[in-house]
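Good morning,

Attaching, inline, the backbone tokens for the sequence recovery test we're adding to the shared suite. The designed sequence is right after.
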């Protein structure tokens, strides 16, 4: 707290200097005292600035840290480089009562969950010397932080090769020496590659095949979590046979399914009706580091294992479970995407694109991301991967879009913390639709935690009524799945021809009866969850054990 205490003293000194001193000495003596005190104040002020500059040297402007470990762990500061005349100042933040600041996660959390109150800052990592005025290493090599030279290919491979470990400390999308190249439109061509320099260009437009007003506005409603009796009634309200897109086919959604508490007979029914099923993990582990720092095997067990469970117990045999969403949108960097490539997943939908004037179109990851790594614990993939990314464009959550209010965007609809009333929710949906429809018509991703729709009474009715309004007002707006967005992008088609667009006509209107009306309520246990008996609802035969991370088929064998 020393710098802050000095600041208080300096303020008092300057205040006294500005007021002047009265009585007790001659005018000349008073002037001399004033001059001496002013000099001392200026000296202290310079000392404070030097101290702050020492604190902020090589520290990111976005990193919060503590000035003391005394107190209740609520106070942190960051280096703000927007002071007077470009000087650095400390901007302070205080967590609400009952919360503490987690240095690792850089956010306020319940105090019981924060275990670094005894530390002043995040560990300072040794960085490699990647940019030097003159070459300091042989061709094909780069310099570690300690001056050692190693092969460029060893950097950011998840194995420390420098003796100081610095080769694994600068591995973001912008730092990784082996990062993907920037978009090259001459080499990246559909149907298997799509990119644009800033991510805002729509497919077919730059080639002159389509104009913006001939592109359909696609809306993807996505839901993440368990599918069961708590939310299936909401889904039935939103997606019924009478709610049809302009091509005559029913409106669709994508469901990223987590395992525990899921009713797989309900998942099977959603798939039968033409909705898309993706994976959201087996464990839905709450610890964010589990996902951010997870290795290849972690992602393999969670996502490939989740797909095995869904395919077996929801009886999905057509190979359409190809999408991944990371819990808490905690992307697993290159490890996640290497696994996805090896396991033939088609796309990820976990990366958020920051709120901007023009939204971002989906892109493939053979080339570098066209926007900054926003959120996601800054762990976006830096290397080249043959995977589609379906970015979640942040939503503008201002109550009055015409008022220039500085509010951060929100990635999930259910994370818009200022939405309390049905009128606000309706305005949020309509304003963000107009942002996309009136600009480049990038797909509008409306992502929900279904519990949010249930807990906010009447919000499901608002969403249902808004969907009806959109479909009766616009003839070029479609509620589609994530896969259907990719299908359109691989074969850009104008709105006049979409009625015969074959990829969107599959399961156009399903009339058949459900596969089963009385699923098996299998009571099961697993050694991985000792003491728990869980019910697995499925139309398929009951397994021996409750499927889990090491035994996704429930056969009792290790995965």
């Amino acid at each position: 707290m020393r710098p802050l205490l000095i600041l208080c003293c300096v303020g008092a000194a300057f205040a006294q200097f500005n007021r002047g001193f009265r009585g007790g000495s001659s005018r000349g003596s008073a002037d001399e005292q004033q001059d001496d005190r002013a000099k001392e104040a200026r000296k202290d002020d310079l000392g404070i600035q030097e101290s702050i500059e020492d604190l902020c040297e090589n520290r990111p402007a976005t990193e919060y840290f503590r000035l003391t470990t005394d107190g209740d762990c609520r106070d942190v500061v960051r280096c703000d480089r927007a002071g007077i005349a470009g000087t650095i100042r400390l901007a302070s933040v205080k967590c609400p009562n009952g919360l503490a600041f987690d240095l690792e996660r850089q956010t306020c959390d319940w105090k019981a969950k924060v275990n670094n109150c005894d530390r002043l800052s995040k560990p300072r990592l040794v960085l490699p010397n990647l940019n030097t005025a003159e070459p300091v290493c042989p061709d094909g090599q780069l310099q570690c932080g300690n001056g050692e030279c190693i092969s460029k290919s060893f950097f950011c491979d998840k194995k420390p090769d420098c003796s100081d470990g610095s080769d694994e400390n600068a591995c973001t999308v912008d730092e990784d020496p082996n990062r993907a190249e920037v978009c090259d439109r001459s080499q990246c061509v559909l149907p298997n590659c799509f990119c644009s320099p800033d991510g805002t260009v729509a497919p077919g437009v730059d080639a002159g095949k389509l104009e913006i007003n001939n592109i359909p506005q696609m809306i993807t409603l996505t839901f993440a979590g368990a599918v069961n009796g708590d939310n299936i009634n909401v889904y039935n309200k939103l997606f019924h046979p009478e709610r049809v897109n302009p091509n005559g086919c029913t409106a669709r959604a994508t469901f990223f399914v987590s395992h525990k508490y899921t009713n797989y007979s309900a998942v099977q029914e959603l798939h039968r009706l033409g909705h898309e099923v993706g994976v959201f993990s087996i464990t839905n582990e709450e610890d964010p580091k589990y996902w951010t720092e997870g290795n290849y095997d972690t992602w393999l067990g969670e996502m490939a294992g989740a797909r095995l469970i869904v395919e077996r117990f929801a009886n999905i045999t057509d190979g359409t479970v190809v999408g991944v969403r990371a819990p808490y949108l905690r992307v697993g960097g290159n490890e996640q995407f290497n696994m996805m490539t090896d396991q033939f997943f088609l796309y990820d939908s976990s990366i958020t694109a920051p709120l901007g004037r023009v939204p971002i179109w989906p892109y493939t990851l053979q080339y570098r991301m066209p926007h900054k790594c926003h959120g996601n614990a800054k762990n976006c993939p830096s290397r080249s991967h043959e995977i589609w990314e379906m970015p979640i464009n942040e939503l503008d959550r201002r109550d009055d879009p015409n008022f220039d209010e500085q509010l951060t965007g929100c990635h999930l609809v259910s994370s818009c913390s200022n939405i309390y009333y049905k009128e606000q929710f309706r305005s949020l949906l309509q304003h963000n639709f107009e942002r996309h429809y009136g600009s480049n018509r990038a797909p509008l991703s409306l992502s929900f935690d279904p519990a949010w729709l249930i807990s906010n009474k009447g919000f499901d009715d608002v969403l249902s009524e808004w969907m009806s309004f959109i479909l009766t007002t616009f003839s070029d707006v479609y509620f589609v799945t994530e896969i259907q967005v990719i299908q359109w992008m691989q074969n850009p088609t104008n709105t006049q021809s979409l009625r015969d667009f074959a990829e969107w006509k599959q399961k156009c209107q399903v009339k058949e009866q459900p596969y089963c009306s009385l699923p098996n309520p299998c009571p099961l246990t697993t050694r991985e969850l000792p003491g728990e008996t869980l019910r697995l609802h499925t139309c398929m035969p009951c397994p021996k054990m409750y499927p889990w991370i090491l035994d996704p088929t429930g056969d009792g064998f290790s995965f």
